[in-house]
Amino acid sequence: MRLSKSKADLYAAIRRDHRAGMSMRALQRKYGVTWQTVRKALDLVWPEPRKKLPPRPTRLDPYKPLIDEMLRRDLDAPPKQRHTSKRVFDRLLDEYAAAGISYQMVRGYIATRRGEIRQEAGRGPSEVFVPQTHLPGAETEVDFGDVHIVLAGVATRCYLFSFRLSYSGKAVHRVFASCGQEAFFEGHVHALSVLGGAPRGKVRYDNLKAAVAKVLGFARHRQESERWTAFRTHWGIESFYCRPGLEGAHEKGGVEGQIGYFRRNHFVPVPEVASLAELNEMVDRWDLQDEGRRIRSRARTVGEYFAVEAPLLKPLPTELFETGRLFTPRVDRYSQIAVQTNRYSVPVRLIGRTVRVMLHANHLIVYDQGQEVARHERLSTKAGSRLDLDHYLEALIRKPGAFPGATALEQAKSAGKFTPVHDNWWAAARAAHGDKDGTKALIEVLLLGRHMSHEHIVAGLATALRAGAFTADAVALEARKAAEADELAASIPAHAALPEPPGRQRATVTFLSDWRMSHLPADTRPLPSVAPYDQLLRHRRPGGAPATEGEAT
To answer: What is the torsion angle, in degrees rounded to the nearest 10, for the CA atoms of residue 191, residue 195, residue 198 and residue 199?
Structure first.
C-alpha cells in the first residue's frame, strides 16, 4: 500500500534515489509518476505552486459590475454616506430585481473587492498605522471614559479621567460625577501631584468642550476656552488636539487602550461603594498595582520605566489654581439654591439672600460672607435635589406638623442619618407627650448633632429609649456619657481590663438636674443664723408700762 506524500517529500525522495544511481525510468515505476514529474523534481529546488482553478460561476456574477460601480462612487462620497453591504444588497433587490442571491454572498464579495478598488484607483489602503517612539518625560495622553458603578445602592454612570505618560505607560485615574471643566481640571491637578511633575512635551487631547471652544476648519487650530488657557499655562502644559472623530482616537491610542484595560480589570464586577471618595481610594490602590504589569512584550514593568521617566518631568508650580466654578444663586423660599439644573439646601436663615457657590467635580461648597454654610455631594442626575435635614430644623421646631412629610427627612432616612433608633424614640415620645411635643423633643435631639457626634447621639437615644426617658435633656446627658466612655476607652492601654460594656448593664437614665446637683462643688459656708434679727424684736418696758403714742407695739 502506497502512502500519500506531499509534493515536497516526493521531490526529496526522487532526488535522494537519483543520487544513489537509480535511473529516471526506475524512478517513474517506483513512485508512479510521469517523466515530467521526475524531471521537475531534479531541476526545481522547490515544487511549483498549485495552479489556481478558475473561479466557479455563482449567481452573483451578473451583478458584480453593478457592485463595483457602487464601490467606485463611494471613493468620493462623504465617509458617513457610503454603501454598506446591507445597503448594496437592498439596492440589488429593489432596483435590479436580483434573484437567487443572498446577503452573505454580497458581503463576502464586498469585503474583498472594496480594498482592490481602492488600490486600482491609486488611493492606497484605507488606514495605515505607523509605529512611534516616545521620549521619556516628553509626551502624555488624556481622555475620559464612561464607567458604571453602584453608588449608595443606586446604579450610577460616572466618568473615568485618565492621564497617561506615553513612554512608561504610567497612568493616573480619577472617577468623577461629571466630565465638565471642573472635573477636567481636578483630574489634571490630581495626576500631576501623583506624578510629581509635568510633561516637557505635548499633551494629546480630544476636542473636549472643557478645553476647546471652537474647532477652526479642518486644521489643528482650536479656539480654547479662557479658563483652560489660564489653567494649562499655569501648569506649563503644551496642548495638542487630535482630529475629530474616530481618526483622532487613533492618534492617542495609548490612553484609549488604557481606559479599556482599567475598566475591564478593575470595574468588573461593577463596584458597589457608599461614596465617590471611597471609590477613588480604591482607584489609587489599583494605579499602584498596575505599576507591576508589563505592556505587551516590553522588557520591564511600567513602574521600572516610570522610575526612569519621573526625574525628567518639569517641576510643578507652588501656587494653587482654583479648579471649581463660581456661581452666585439666590436662596428661594424653600431654602434651596439651583446649580446646573439641580437643587441643594442651605440653612433657612439665608432665605432671600444671594450666596456664593464653588462647584467642584464631586461636591459643592456654599459660602455666605466668606463663611462656609453648607457642603453637599454633587448630584450626577438632572432636576434632582439634595436636602440636608439640619438646614430645616429651626423652621421645623416652629412647624412640627411639617416634620413627618419633609423631603429632607426622607433623604436622611435613605442616607442612613435618620436611623431606626431615631424612629423608635420618636414614636415613643409622641405616645408619651403627644404628636406636637414629641416631635419637638425629637427636633431638639437632632439639634444636638451640631456639636455632638452622630454615633454618640444614637447611643444616647438607645439608652433613653430603654429607660423610658423621652426628653432632649436625657438624650444629651446619655450622649455625653457615651462620649466620655469612648474617651476613657481610648486612654486605657490595650492590655488593661476594660469596664463592662454598656449593653450588658441595666439601662438607667440620670436626669440633667440631678446630674448638675451631683457635680456641684462642696459648700463649706456656715449655716445661716437668725440671731442678729433678735435686736429688732420689741423690748418690754420695766413694770409693764404701756407704750407711748407713736411707738410700735
So the answer is: -100
Give per-residue pLDDT as tens, 40-70: 888 887 888 878 888 888 999 999 999 999 9
Strand partners, 386: 344
Helices 181-195 & 226-235 angle (0-180, nearest 10): 0
**Residue 53 — φ and ψ, nearest 5°?**
-75, 145
Per-residue exposure over 147-160, b if at least 16 CB sit within 10 Å of its own CB, e if not:
bebebeeeebebbb
Please state the separation of Cα 103 from the chain's center in Å: 44
Residues 234, 321: contact at Cβ < 8 Å?
Answer: yes
Place of cell 464631586: 362
Whether pTM > 0.70 for this model: the answer is no
- 491637578: which residue's cell? 189
For 62, half-sphere exposure in the C-beta direction (CA atoms, 13 angstrom radius) is 8
Query: With 0-12 CB in 10 A as exposed, 13-18 as middle and 19+ as buried, what is 425?
Result: buried
Where do runs of H (alpha helix) occur along 20-145? 24-31, 35-43, 64-74, 85-96, 103-120
User: Are 354 and 383 a contacting pair, CB within 8 Å?
Assistant: no
Q: Which residues contact 84 (CB under 8 A, 6 or more apart)?
A: none
Distances (CA, A) of 51 to 40, 47, 319: 15, 12, 75
Query: For residue range 216-236, what is the model confidence (pLDDT) as tens digits?
Result: 766 677 888 888 999 989 998
* Cis ω for the linkage preceding 269 (within 30 of 0): yes
Terminal Cα distance for the chain, rounded:
161
> Which contiguous run of DSSP H or E holds residue 18?
helix 7-19
Residue type, 485: A
Q: How many helices (H) and strands (E) does the chain have?
A: 19, 15
Residue in 484, 486, 467, 464 with CA at minimum distance from that of residue 475 = 464
Classify residue 496 by its DSSP letter.
S
Distance CA 416, CA 275 (A): 13
Angle between helices 103-120 and 64-74 (to 10 degrees): 50
pLDDT tens-digit map of 253-273:
889 889 999 999 999 899 999
Look over the chain and give the mean of its residue pLDDT values, rounded to a whole number. 86
DSSP element (H, E) containing 213: strand 212-215
| Spatial separation of the C-alpha atoms in residues 299 and 465, rounded to whole Å | 66
